[in-house]
Amino acid sequence: MTTCANLEKLSVKESLKAEHIGKKVKLSGWVRTRRDSKAGFSFFELNDGSSMKSVQVLAPNDLSNYESELLHAGIGCSIEVEGEVVESPGKGQATEVKATCIKVLGGCDPASYPLQKKGTSFEFLRTIAHLRPRTNSFGAVARVRNQICKSIHDFFQERGFIYVHTPIITGSDCEGAGQMFKVTTLDLQKPPLKEGTKSGEINFEEDFFGKATNLTVSGQLSGECYATALTNIYTFGPTFRAENSNTSRHLAEFWMVEPEMSFCNLEGNMEVAEDFLKRIFRDVLNNCEEDMKFFAERIDKTVLERLTHIVESDFVRLSYTEAVDKLLKSGQKFEFPVEWGIDLQSEHERYLTEQVFKKPVIVYDYPRGIKAFYMKLNEDEKTVRAMDVLVPGVGEIIGGSQREERLEVLETRMKESGLNPEEYWWYLDLRRYGTVPHAGFGLGLERTVQFVTGMANIRDVIPFPRTPKSAEF
RNA sequence: UCCCGAGUAGCGCAGCGGUAGCGCAGGUGACUGUUAAUCACUUGGUCGUAGGUUCGAAUCCCACCUCGGGAGCCA
Questions:
Q1: Cβ contact A250 with chain B strand, < 7 A
Q2: Strand B contacts (CB < 7 A) among A residues 174-233?
């Protein structure tokens, strides 16, 4: 059993910096590869996730466990290294660590270990989601995702927004955003039935909460409650959609940021949305240089210029009516013909943002018939104060609106949408007591990570994706 | 959910009616301040599952399952 002395601990990221040359340090991590030299030593590539790059550890053959352990420690093994950071005589790195002691903490059988030195497909890596963070790609995605989350909090915190935790389990049977997952503790084999009903309806009064409950599809309605007291708030947490969507842009469980601002109209909403996205992109460019270089080289060549371009340019703003006009006059043939009143299809959105403007586009003032009940009705009574931010490659990344603050109009709109205003008594109270103009939007975290990294499939930007027929890990 | 496409060794793929192949990974050996190291030899597969056609099916037909691309729904 090898034991090492107690030295200052250094991350792999730090050990790569020339300023540490001459220091005696301790490192730990996982072996990426081992290369042996007959000249009397072996090289270990050691990675601990602190950076894309691994550090080269030089293991001389006079280490006591060299023959017995180190020559058998390859990809996947966890090791602890003590040694000196030295200038590297080899090409490809400024520093390396000359080991005085290497302890193998956990072995790894190379014959059965699924990861290889050579690249494997993302499809295969999805089947080993528990091990894929050990690859360069998923390490980079995790670090960039972390930076984006930090920027989200920084942006709002610096502006005095209050972070509000809205519930994950909700009693609203519809929040205006798609199919929901049911939450119940009832016995699914023989659920209690309502008395006197022939059809055998389930009696949710006997359920845990005494009513039917679901996983939230949006924190917006709860967020509005806090915004109409604390002025500016944001929610940031998981949301759930039980839609049978099988695409590279949809998840059943995903994270969403939803700011809500009182005393704010649609223009203010659009300004915040634009500043917000630019802040995230700027932070990633400044703080994740190494990872972004990797994405530019291996995943999507355009990723750096795309982000830089967006940070430096103004978003295009055009009304839905103008957008339809532009599409009609484009001469472009679409699978779905354009006509005022229809919802814009993916192909239309992408044509606008990718072909016409080549930068983010904010489309606003959509027809009332295709948007949610809570969006403020314009004076023309045909359109609502909704806005979508469209970006090249991903399409819709933000959806938001100024909210309807007039009680009567909101009630009418609810009924139009087939909702029962009585069930939303608490939401309507916000309009009964001290109502104010307010607005907000939702940003899908995973789509943002996709856009920033250029990763083609949304299943590869969340650690453990939940999609139809898939929840293994 | 709909329309395409694909499921052959641990991974990436070829074979497309006549007794299963390549590259990488793994193993052994050689060589080397190496860096996706290189060279030689080598282990490994009831060809997604279940039916059918045929003397004979990885190959043709049917169903199902899973995965991928696109669409719808949306973030």
A1: yes
A2: 177-178, 218
Q: Using the C1' atom of nucleotide B25, identify the protein residue whose alpha carbon is closest.
A: A116
Positive or negative torsion for Cα A423, A427, A429, A432 = negative
* Contact flag, residue A111 CB and nucleic strand B, below 7 A: yes
Q: Which chain B positions have some atom within 7 A of a protein CB? A: 1-2, 10-13, 24-27, 31-37, 65-75
Residue range A118-162, pLDDT digits in tens: 778 999 999 999 999 999 999 999 999 999 999 999 999 999 999
Residues 353-392 of A with CB under 7 A from strand B: none
Angle at A75 between CA A288 and CA A27, to 5 degrees: 60
CA–C1' A343–B73 (A): 12
Residue A447 CB lies within 7 Å of the nucleic strand B: yes
| Domain parsing of chain A, residue ranges | 8-106, 134-180+217-460
Task: Report pLDDT digits (tens) over A203-252.
Answer: 999 999 999 999 999 999 999 999 999 999 999 999 999 999 999 999 99
Residue A152 parent element (H or E): helix A136-158
Say which nucleotide is closest to residue A443, CA to C1' distance. B75
Ordered DSSP codes for A337-386 = ---TTSPPPHHHHHIIIIIISSS-EEEEEEEGGGS-TTBPBPTTSSEEEE
Task: Please state which of the ranges A221-225, A395-399, A451-455 shows the lowest mean pLDDT.
Answer: A395-399
Q: Coil, strand or helix: which one is A242?
A: coil
- ipTM of the predicted structure? 0.90
Distance CA A354, CA A391 (A): 8
Question: CATH assignment of A8-106, given 3.30.365.10, 3.30.70.1350, 2.40.50.140, 3.10.310.10?
Answer: 2.40.50.140
For residues A347 and A390, give the distance between their C-alpha atoms in angstroms, rounded to a whole number: 12
Whole-number distance in Å between A46 CA and B29 C1': 27
Straight-line distance from CA A381 to C1' B17, in Å?
69
Class at the top of the CATH hierarchy for domain A134-180+217-460: alpha beta
